[in-house]
Each structure stands twice: as structure tokens, then as C-alpha cells.
User: Fold this.
Amino acid sequence: MKFSPSLFEVRDLSFTRGDNEILKSVNLTILKGEYCAIIGPNGGGKTTLIRLLMGLEKPTSGTIKLFGTDQSKFREWHRIGYVPQRSALVDATFPATVREVVAMGRYARRGIFGFESAEDVAAIEESMEQMGVSDLRDRLIGHLSGGQRQRVMIARALASHPQVLIVDEPNTGVDVESQHRFYDLLRVLNKTKGIAILFITHDVGVIAEDISKLFFVNQTLLLSQTPQEMLRCDSMSRLYGTPAHVVCHNH
Amino acid sequence: MMVEMLSYPFMQRAFIAGLMIALLAAMSGSFIVLRRYSLLSETLAHVSLVGVSVGILFGLSPLWMAVVASLIASWLIEYLRSVHGMYSDSVLAIFLSGSLALAIVIVSLSGSFNASLFSYLFGSILSVSNDDLMIMGFFGSISMALLILFFKELYFIAFDEEVAHTSGIRVSLLNFMLVSIIAVIIALSIRVVGTLLIGALMVIPPVAAIRFGMGFFSTTLLSIAIALVCVVAGLSLSFFFSLPSGAAIVLCLLVAFIFALVVNRR
Assistant:
């Protein structure tokens, strides 16, 4: 296992689909234990940036290093927990219990003969416990509410004991109360487990003031700064292209 | 009665072949059903018919030829789907009618639409030879071993292909492996179940089992049980009432499916 203080290191990253330039010259670094958010307008390339980081798209140019290793040579994918945007949307009849879904998080770590080791069982139980879904273990994933499914998907990502968790638009299909509980959970994971968090949102209101870094993505990485700087209106105007007014919620 | 039926060597062979196919079809069927890829089995069954007709025309083993044709087609289909990003149902539709057309042309060239071909279409308990059993045993064990070894990875891919990929599972390779296994199972099954009917043996047991709302492991076990019971019942009906075995098996599967629907009304 290679030691590197930076989990993600992106240099001069560009991505074009057809004639459409989706991202250009993006540079960003995420360090161990950081709590980061990507914000920006819809269609601004937030999800594409994440997909590039996860190797689901190939960059047109630029380099991506994961844990100090060039992405093409990176093999320790279990160190990164990924929860995609539409993960809370599951076919209602899909035959998968909560326990089975969380166990998937261990699959890549299990060998070819793949029986669950005591370590696997402990990791699965622990992550279900952390996300408060232990009681739902035998329920079908498709029978849960959006918020519950979201927590199951995070539990699956946590089961592989990742050092960084990437969550794309966690609010899709989730009610407001669950959203707040959800961000509290992310914060707790970051504080108590030291897991770096990178989440995408277009809802600026949910961003806590203690966030380490904010990335504003609209075709390019416009700004990378702290929440205090972000709350100044001119930052928002630069990001969204129109004069913006920030309303603070003091939760 | 059962004892009398099983005293015939041809019935013993039909049962061995049928149970083997039921096990393999139900296990692999879950994956294609969950991936909305049910038509794959139907398509590859028609492709196997090309192999069978080539075999009949040139005097080669129809079963071997079916395995070869089905494997090649499965790779082409997966290639067109994954590399060229074509819609899977349209690729399947092209292969389905295209291969049937090709098979009919080849059969016409051989000058006869004979009884032997009829047995490949609808299955026949009389037709399973010792050689067939050997071929089935060989390919069947390899397929079974691969299905068991990669069961969890295939399940993960069926549930969420992208996250499976990002967790380090070699999705493309396993997708190619799955379609190859399915191609082989289908080609092997045409003796007992027949090309026109094997799709049902692959699709109905998982679909019926899913109705019971259980987890994947239990659903797969139930699906296998349904397939085994229906094959035993179908082969017995075929023996006692002189029916084509494939048709009898599929009718039993339909009964099981209707039962699953009625029991799990929502």
C-alpha cells in the first residue's frame, strides 16, 4: 500500500463528449480526512468529474492520481467508497435483502472462492449498525423508503473500509428530514472514522460551515475555497453567472 | 410406475440430461432476467439451430456445432452491445430472425426438413445418446464451476454494474463469461428441451421465484427447485403420454408460474 497524503490529485483534466466540452482544465486535490463538497449548476459537469475520478469515463486530457498512483495502474478500488446519483432508485421487486446489498461492499475483497470470513461479517455488521439499517437486514431493498435505501448504499460503500467516500447528489428521491439526518451521518463518519468525504450537491443550503473545501464546478473548476469565502455573494455570482443572494439557514 | 419409467436406459439418460440442464438454466437464468436480458436465451437458442442444421448437412455432431454457433453469436452480441453501444434488444432481434433464416436456408439446402430436426425444435426424450451425455457432462461441469465461482460478482453486476466496476470487479470480462456460459447451456439443452422452448426453462423459474419476495440466495435456490421439479414432471408426462419433452416441461413451468402469481397476489 503506497503512502500518499493526497487521496485524489487531478491535473489539467479535460473531458469532451462529441463537440461538447464538459470539463476543461480542472485541477483539484483532496487530502486525507478532508470533508469536501462539489457544488454547481445542473449540467455543469459535477457528476462527470466524479465519473472521471472513478474511472467510469476516460479523460480527453489531463492526469488523475488516486492515492498517489496513476489511475490506470490503480488497483485498490476498495479504498474508495462510491455511491452514485441514482442509487436510491431500485426496482421494487429486485431480489436483494439489505444484508445482501451491504455484503456486496466486501465482494471485491473476497477471493475467488469467496466465502464470507469473520472479518467480512464484522465489517458488514458494523457498517449496517453505523448507518442504522441493522433492523432492516432481511427486508427487500426495493421495499424501503428513499432515505433508507440511501443509507443502505452508504453502508455498502463503508463495508469495504474505504478511506474516502464519494456521494453523488444524495438528496435524489429523499425527503427533507432524511436529508438532514444524512448529512449529519456523513459528518460523523468524517469526524469519528477519519474517512474523507466528497459529496456533490446543488443544494447550497445543506453545506455546513465546517467543511474543509468547496469546489465550484461549472464546466471548469471555478473556485476552490472555504465556506466562509463561499458565502460572499460575488463567489455565487461567478459560479451561477447571475447576481446571487445567499440565504443562510442556521441549523 | 416411476420405477418402470426409470428402468429404460433412454429415460435414465433423459433424466440425467434434463436435471443437469434444469440446474444450469435456473442458476444462470436469474442473472439474465434481472438484467432485462431474457431474450438472450431465446436468441441463442435460434442460433444453435444454425449449428444443428450445419451439423445435419455435413454429417457432424449437431450438438458440437450448436455449442460453437451459440458461443460465436454470444460473443458477437456482447461485443455489439458493450463496445458499439447498440440497444441490446435490437441486437437480439437481429440475431434471432437472422439466425432462423440462415438455419432454414441451410436445412433447405440439405433437401429435407426431417424428423431429426423436429426433435431439436421441441426436444425428445428418445434422442439423448451417451455421447450427448458426455458432451453435456464436460461443458456442463465447466459452466457450473464458473457460475459458482463468480456467483457473487455476477450478482453484484446484475444489481449495479457501475458500482461493481468501481469496486474493482472486472465487469466486461465477467459479462463475456456469462453470455458464453449461457450460450453453452442453451446449446446443450436443445436435445431435451428443444430450441424453441429452452428460453422458458431459463426465464420462468427465476421469474416465478422472484414473486415470492425473498433475497437473491433464497430466490436462486427456489428457482432451481422449480426448474428441477418441472423437468421431472415434464419428462414423466412426456413418457406416459408420448409428448415432445420440451413442450411438456414448458407447460409444467407455466403451471408453476401461474401458481407463483396466484399465491403472491399484490
Chain A touches chain B at residues 54-56, 75-78, 80, 82-84, 87, 93-97, 99-101, 104-105, 107-108, 110, 112-114, 138, 140, 143, 156, 160 (CB under 8 Å). The first helix of chain A runs from residue 46 to 53.
